């Protein structure tokens, strides 16, 4: 019996599977004519025209072989690399998403490279530091302690370490923070309450949903305040499932 996948769509091997690059490209080419009215149709052809040697013909299963050859010839010429794409696109700033424990070593190397004028800046994303109930939380706290050079044996020390990394990101040029929240929550709590909650987690105990909300609320509020105190940033960006909310953006 024919599967719905092969009858109505594209087999997974041509999407994320082990099909060859050409076969995946060809499967996409067969799909493109069905996308008229969808931005993907226009983006596909704009990219082929602007970046791959001025490909003018529409991409479909008949034109795919010739377009594949033309584009790969351009890519293999040695005259067109990732940086060329970035410069050609008129990009001035790229903000990567980075964990507070990241070393940012490559940001430093790019900054020192005088042949590349596009700014590549880190974005401070401490999601793992908020998920107090998630597996691996304490392993992450250990990494944060190593990165900051601060022994984290209390909630105050955790906040100090997070602030330390904000300062480090700022020195590298970071002016943006990025938070992914499953839902928007707020539960009033004092620092003393949250400190006790953190100690529970530190001791391997499970914290309740209400305690988790208090921990996240207080920690996010702290991070927002720390960021805003920087006279030239960062800007807090909170990513929600359906929207982006930007707070206190002070980018220099």
Automatic annotation (TrEMBL):
The keyword Isomerase applies. GO terms for biological process: D-galacturonate catabolic process; D-glucuronate catabolic process. Pathway: Carbohydrate metabolism; pentose and glucuronate interconversion. Its EC number is 5.3.1.12. It holds the Pfam family UxaC. Belongs to the metallo-dependent hydrolases superfamily. Uronate isomerase family. This is Uronate isomerase. It comes from Gracilibacillus boraciitolerans JCM 21714.
């Amino acid at each position: 019996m024919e599967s719905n996948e092969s009858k109505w769509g594209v087999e997974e091997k041509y999407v994320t599977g082990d099909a060859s690059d050409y076969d995946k490209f060809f499967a996409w080419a067969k799909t493109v004519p069905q996308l008229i009215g969808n931005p993907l149709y226009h983006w596909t052809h704009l990219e082929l025209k602007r970046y791959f040697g001025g490909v003018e013909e529409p991409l479909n299963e008949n034109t795919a072989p010739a377009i594949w050859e033309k584009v790969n010839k351009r890519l293999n010429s040695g005259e067109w690399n990732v940086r060329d794409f970035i410069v050609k696109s008129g990009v001035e700033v790229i903000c990567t998403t980075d964990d507070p424990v990241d070393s940012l070593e490559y940001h430093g190397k790019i900054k020192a490279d005088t042949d590349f004028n596009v700014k590549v800046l880190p974005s401070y994303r401490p999601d793992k530091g908020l998920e107090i109930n998630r597996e691996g939380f304490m392993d992450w706290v250990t990494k944060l302690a190593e990165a900051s050079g601060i022994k984290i044996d209390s909630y105050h020390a955790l906040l100090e370490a997070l602030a330390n990394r904000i300062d480090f990101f700022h020195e590298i040029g970071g002016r943006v923070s990025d938070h992914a929240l499953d839902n928007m929550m707020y539960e009033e709590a004092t620092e003393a309450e949250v400190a006790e909650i953190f100690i529970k987690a530190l001791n391997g105990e499970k914290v309740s949903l209400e305690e988790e909300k208090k921990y996240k609320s207080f920690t996010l509020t702290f991070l927002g305040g720390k960021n805003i105190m920087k006279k030239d940033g960062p800007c807090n960006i909170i990513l929600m499932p359906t929207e982006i909310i930007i707070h206190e953006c002070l980018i220099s």
